[in-house]
Each structure stands twice: as C-alpha cells, then as structure tokens.
Amino acid sequence: MHSSIAHSDNPAPDTAPLSPGTHTYRLAGLVQRYHVHGRGPVCVAHSGGPGIFYEYMRMPALEEHLTMVYVEPIGTAKDSRLPSHPHGYTRERYSSFLKILINRLGVDKVYLLGHSHGAFVAAYHALHRPEQLAGVVLYEGAPVTGPEHGAEAGRMVEAFAAKHAGHPGLPDVLAAFGAMSGMSSDEQTEAVARGVLPSYFADYWGNEERYAPFRDAVRAAYISGLDEDRTPDVIDDRAALKGLTVPALVIVGRHDVICGMRWGLELDELIPDSRLLVLENSGHMGHVEEPELFADAVRGFVQEITTRDGAV
To answer: Which among 296, 287, 291, 227 has a CA at the least distance from the CA of 45?
Structure first.
C-alpha cells in the first residue's frame, strides 16, 4: 500500500511519510501527529496511559536498527481530541486511527510495539487488523482489565510499600495511587503519573539522578476510559488471544507493579506464536532501565521474522 501525505500543517522539505521528523495530517476533524526516528524495518510505537504523551517512549537504542514511528495517540494534544473528550477513547477507536496511519506509511506491513495501555491497543490491533502487521510487541501489557487486574496491581503496590517502608518518598507515591480514582483534569493526571512513577522502576530511589529527569518530563492528558455513553471499555482478551495469528514478543519487567509477571506469563501462554523476555532488573519502564537488553530482544524478534517471512 503506497500513499503520500496530501496535507501537512507544517510541511517539511521532505514530506515522504517515513522521512525523519514530525508528520501531521488531519483525520475526522482531528490532528494526527507521528514522529519518525532511525532507519531499518518500520516499527510503530503506541504509548500508554491512556493519555501519556509519547515522548517517554523514545528508544534511541532501537532507532539504531529500526525506523521508529512514534504515534501521538488521539486525545493527548488538544487539537487531537474527540468531541466527546475525555470520553470515547476505546481500543477500537485507537486502532481505527492506527489503521489509517499505517496505511499512509507506504509499506506492506509494520511491526507494532505497544507499552502498557498501548499494549492493550496493540493486542486489539493484532487481533482485528492482522493484515497490517509483520509482528507485535506487547510490552508491559495484560490480557484483562477490571477487578482482577486491579486486585493484582493492589497486591503488587502493597508489596512495593512493604519493601520501601520508612522511605521518605513512599507516602507521596501512595498518595498518588490514592488520587488515581479521582482524576478529572490534565493537571491531576500529570501529577498522578509523576507521583506513582518511583514504583514503576525496579530501583528508582537508588538511581534517582538518572531517572528524575525522565519523571519530570512526563506529560499527561486526562482520558476517562469510558466510551461516549459512559460505559467502561473493559477488556478480556483471553479467549481471542488463543487465536492470534501475528507473531508476538511479550516483554515484562520482573518488578512491574501494574502489568507485572503474572500477566506477562499469561500472555505468553495464551498466544500461540509468542516469545517472552523477562527483564530481571526492570519495573514498568524496561526501555529506560535496561535499554540494551530491551533493544536486542526487539531487534532479534524483527530479524527472525524478516529472515523467515521476507517481511519488511
């Protein structure tokens, strides 16, 4: 599928869909942006949240080997918000916007890497639009949301609190978790995202000089998780994933409190053609905590499929 960018708000000298830099187009009245870095097979990266801005996903170690296309998911930038904002951001809607973006890139198939909530989106896309994908990377995802997922996260946060009992930073982290359910604005969402972040690393406080700039740079928009009619977009992919036809790489950090080992192992068991990477010294942010191991695994996954299928 080959297409050209017919419209760009800020056209660069080279407007080829995969030229380095920022690309912009309009779709259904919204502005869609994506950012291209690196060279090699094309890997589209979808960030998490929902509502976390894409910048935290930058993966320089992968950009040395792949053309990384970082999507700005709809709803983050103010000019990319649905009329029903902060509601209406279902996986089907994210996936439908991804479909059009991938079509515009002008390659037959891409690799899709989703982190956290982005992994839920990537799994959905692989299940419903597999013809676009050479492979999918489910990075810190899970097969379900809802009470079961919440209970597991609660258990992991309690273990984190017990491990770090007495640390002066712990009360602020727990307060941020407590504020999650009451978020209703971009400012509150950003404060919560930064507030919980020490628990998202295997050893944040032991590496605070390294990780504090990452934490300070996190930006977020409030997205409710409800459809336009205020129904929750609850997920249970367990049955569907048993029939997934797209080759999959599952990546999970040993110390992840939100989408941890239980879910990574379950994803790997459910998906027929999957590989599993456990990052032993990472939490939820393995591309920052163990970037070389992370990049080696993704690159090896892409090379294996490229060699086997002649995919590009």
So the answer is: 287
Do 127 and 35 lie in one domain? The reply is yes
Give the count of beta carbons closer than 10 Å to the beta carbon of residue 66.
23
Q: Given this model, what pLDDT does residue 170 score? A: 98
Query: What SS3 state is found at 213?
Result: helix
CB atoms within 10 A of CB 172: 13
Question: Is 14 part of any domain?
Answer: no
Contact 51/222 with Cβ under 8 angstroms? yes
| CA distance to 50, 98, 203, 214, 271, per residue, from 58 (Å) | 17, 18, 20, 11, 27
Q: Find all residues with CB under 8 Å of 145, minimum gap 6, and list them.
A: 120, 234, 235, 236
158 lies in some domain: yes
How far, in Å, CA of 76 to CA of 216, rounded? 17
CA distance 90 to 257: 24
| Per-residue model confidence (pLDDT) at position 138 | 98
Give the domain range for residue 206: 151-217
Q: Which phi and psi (to 5°) does residue 310 adopt?
A: 65, 25
- In this structure, are residues 267 and 143 in contact, taking their beta carbons and an 8 Å threshold? yes
Residues 139 and 241 in one domain: yes
Is 55 in contact with 32 (CB distance < 8 Å)?
A: no
β-bridge partners, 144: 236
Residue 7: the pLDDT is: 37
Q: What is the CATH number of the domain that holds 96?
A: 3.40.50.1820
Angle CA(286)–CA(307)–CA(16) in degrees, nearest 5? 75
Report pLDDT for 15.
Answer: 77
Q: What is the pLDDT of residue 310?
A: 59
Q: Tell me, what's the pLDDT at 73?
A: 97
- Do the domain assignments include residue 205? yes
235 and 94 inside one domain: yes
pLDDT score recorded for residue 273: 87
143: cis peptide before it, omega within 30°?
no
| Cα distance between residue 210 and residue 198, in whole Å | 12
Enumerate residue ranges in the chain where pLDDT < 70: 1-14, 310-312
